[in-house]
Amino acid sequence: MGILVHVLLTAVAVWVSTVIPGIDLGEGSTPAKIGTLLGVALLFGLVNVVVKPVVKFFGCVFYLVTLGLIGLVVNGLLFWLTGWLADRLGLPFQVTGFWPAFFGAIIVALTSWALNLVYDRITDGD
What we know:
mainly alpha; globular
């Protein structure tokens, strides 16, 4: 159940990131857009699980030298990779460049953090 909630919260965060020019959800009906968002959220989660640890391992010196600020660039590149993979998989989701990906990744991270915080507070009350 936790993975499903996490995917749903990430889908909402990806939807919020579409306010950035250069991040486009494409045309379609509302159910089609929801399906696209869920697919992109799942894909973004897989990219973060598979690629991010490898990048952190091989780039650990850069993380130390930049005091972790390279993580912002890495997250942007992973979001850009997600947009590229989504396009290859036929999902109508596009990230047109590095800067939209950079700011989109920041928005996704902050929105996911806030939504997870609210979700944790709600479930702790049960």
